[in-house]
Amino acid sequence: MLTRHPANPVLKHTDCPFPATTVFNAGVARHEGRYVMLFRNDYGRWGDPNFDGTNLGLATSADGITWDVAAKPVLDTERARAGLAHLVDSRFGPEEIRRVYDPRITVIEGRPHVCFAVDTRHGILGGVAVTDDFSRYEFLCLSAPDNRNMVLFPERFGGRYLRLERPFPIYGRGAPEAFDLWASYSPDLRHWGETRLVLGSEELPFVNNKIGPAVPPVRTSRGWLAPIHAVFKDPARRLHGWEANPWTKTYYAGLMLLDLEDPRRVIGLMRRPLLAPEAIYEREGFRGDVIFPCGFVVEDSGEARLYYGAADTCVALATGHVDELVAACEPLPSR
What pLDDT digit, counting tens, does each position of 115-152 carry? Predict the structure, then answer.
């Protein structure tokens, strides 16, 4: 279904002209005639799970394969604290914001919008920002805790914006960490509501742990094509990685098809993984056996490019044809 690009990984920490250790979970989009990648960088010492900090780097490309990384990170914790100050109660101080990470890019009406995760002293939040140059960001909103993995649709529906998201409540249903995929509407990218469950983790036969959004969905003639992340946990299996805690989760890329008019309705679902960890750069790194989709670009030719974080260590690329991906989503009964 997908073919790994022979240039993989397409972005590594050694490609960065600034301190970098793991570069992954990068938003990727086409904008103004070029490919743009906004990537997470956890920096410290190679092989040491105790990082010194996190920032976001910027890379651009003419072909989406060979990337030029900007000389400096474009967003770090200090700048994020300044930009988010109007959204955080001042009595908690700037230290309330611990880091901003895992960006996802959606171009809406010609402007890049970025969803991101925010670690705070009172929980993990999801946020939305808009930028024109990927250097300066206008932070629009923060969610209630705990929520993350947010992605925006590139179009409005009845004048409203729509995002996919993954809340992760402490008191989940059934098994621990049985997290699911939800959607919310907004009139202005600041106020969100009409939240609805889109897909439950129990609906995927290769998952026993959690699912969630991964990349901004792409419009096709048959529906919105949306790669997702899907997790299987096996406590008896220790995977290859240098994270401090035992790592027992395998992350896959999954795939669903959403209704064109009401994208909160799943109309097709791939019953097996779209992409499973096999290559060495997917199986060994900071966290072994991890594939996390983060960018999805469909070319005019129909070529579908899926960018993904591999082993929470680097960025890789796999390609296929959009028609084959749509056809792989088995129709679901009316929901």
Answer: 999 999 999 999 999 999 999 999 999 999 999 999 99
Contact present, 137 and 75 (Cβ < 8 Å): yes
Residue pointed to by tokens 């129990």: 202
Contact 162, 152 (CB under 8 A): yes
Q: How many angstroms separate the Cα of 45 from the Cα of each of 60, 200, 201, 314?
A: 26, 38, 35, 15
Q: How far apart are CA 275 and CA 291, in angstroms?
A: 8
Q: The domain that contains 280 carries what CATH number? A: 2.115.10.20
Count of structural domains within the chain: 1
Q: Bridge partners of 166?
A: 148
Q: Are 303 and 264 in contact (CB under 8 A)?
A: no
Return the amino acid letter for 48: D
pLDDT 10s digits, 269-320: 999 999 999 999 999 999 999 999 999 999 999 999 999 999 999 999 999 9
The whole domain housing 190 covers 3-331
Terminal alpha carbon distance of the chain: 27
Reference 27, options 187, 221, 213, 200; nearest CA is: 213
Nearest residue to 67 (alpha-carbon basis) of 57, 53, 75, 54 = 57
Q: Is 102 exposed, middle or buried (0-12, 13-18, 19+ CB in 10 A)?
A: buried
